[in-house]
What we know:
Layout: E1 25-28, H1 35-45, H2 49-64, E2 86-88, H3 102-110, H4 113-120, E3 123-128, E4 131-137, H5 139-142, E5 147-149, H6 151-157, H7 159-165, H8 177-185, E6 189-194, E7 204-209, E8 216-217, E9 220-225, E10 230-238, E11 246-248, E12 251-256, E13 261-269, E14 274-276, E15 279-284, E16 289-297, E17 301-304, E18 307-310, E19 316-325, E20 330-333, E21 336-339, E22 345-354, E23 359-368, E24 375-385, E25 391-400, E26 405-415, H9 418-426, H10 431-447, H11 456-462, H12 466-469
Parallel strand pairs: 3-7, 6-9, 7-10, 8-11, 9-12, 10-13, 11-14, 12-15, 13-16, 14-17, 15-18, 16-19, 17-20, 18-21, 19-22, 20-23, 21-23, 22-24, 23-25, 24-26
Antiparallel strand pairs: 1-2, 3-4, 5-6
Helix pairs in contact: 1-2, 2-8, 6-7, 9-10
Amino acid sequence: MGQEIDLQSFEIDRSRYDDHNEERLSFKAQAGLSEEVVRQISAHKGEPDWMLQKRLDGLRIFYELEMPTWGPSLAALDLDSIYYYMKPDAKKDAADWNDVPEDIKNTYDKLGIPEAEKKSLAGVGAQYESEVVYHNLKKEWEDQGVVFLDCDEAVKQYPYLVKKYFMTTCVPARLHKFAALHAAVWSGGTFIYIPKGVKLTTPLQAYFRMNAKRGGQFEHTLIIVDEGAEVQYIEGCSAPQYTENSIHAGCVEIHVLKGARARYSSIENWSKNTYNLNTKRALVEEDGVIEWVNGNMGSGVTMLYPASVLKGNRSRCDFIGVAFAGPGQHQDTGSKVVHIGKNTSSTIQSKSISKGGGISSYRGLLSVKSSATNAKASVSCDALMVDDISQSNTYPYMDVHTDDVSVAHEATVGKISEDQIFYLMSRGLDEQTATNMIVSGFIEPIVKELPLEYALELNKLIQLEMEGSLG
Length: 471
């Protein structure tokens, strides 16, 4: 063909996310993890003793457990240099957007959060550093008993529910070292309770933003969908890029009760100096449904595997996700499903894009217990590499303890070829448009599952900044 095709310019535009504000905090804990820091966090929040004890238990377990060694290297993550609690100089939980400080408000305006709320969201929460600075729920849902608070407030207003569900059966602190760390230093996040039979027809959204250097964000999302109820929830995350490392070790717990349904969508666009070590899990009861829509890009290292425990008979899980790994990035993502109840079903569809030496890895667990008769499970992994220097890995693990099961797994790795580009260019497209079209077609199954119409942030990220940034 004789024509040089430059695919190296495939890139994500981070200009809206890398702006950072001057650090303006009312309190900043000393760097490093200690019992003193944990007690300071609890005292600043005015927590009851039972929550302080959960934190101290988490700290003890953190010291007992080893660092994971089976995934991407965490050698450059210096946990002693991280600031585990930073309180912005802002009114907590403002219900009026005008009460949010101007610099913080401008950051969220750029990300399209207030506009999204005006157009079609049922409610919005915004967290900046360690605290939630804005929270609002439309009255029509409040009148139906929907609870949408930040998690700190939920500890005070709904202690019975928090005590029952917070890091008990879904995400115990001993699950792994970073779950224990989260239990010790968690701050902010989202608490949602949907009463029996209430079907939330418009989404709730929260956005988490890290601004300071060497920061840690440890928001806790606890969602309880009562019997026969339904909810859609979207989380977005970002941070500006610095030379010093930050850590994000949030936690999402979703309890889907009998006959309930939850859809959780997340777009995580942390900067390359961020270690994204997030934990997400759902516990699904009889006839319940959990749906995950996941996008991971931006962070230097990601270790994230949303898990679904299908405890009840006829419970179901659907997972669809995309990860993008560019230069200096290792996206180690996937999904875990544990089938326990009878007649349970799960589908996992994972896609990854890597370029410029980026590494994308699918790591998944499919566990079918002996009690899970007539279980059905399907796993599909597709990887697209833009060049010859990137990597794509697949680490599927299946642990099946019954013969009465239907399990399917397939994995493909492909490269954008010069033939594909040349063919599209011969039909009148320029190189950028041709490249965009191939990538867009590849991620289309994920894009169509996201409620793109209401949030500029989610829309632009999941399309990988197609206009003007790719190709």
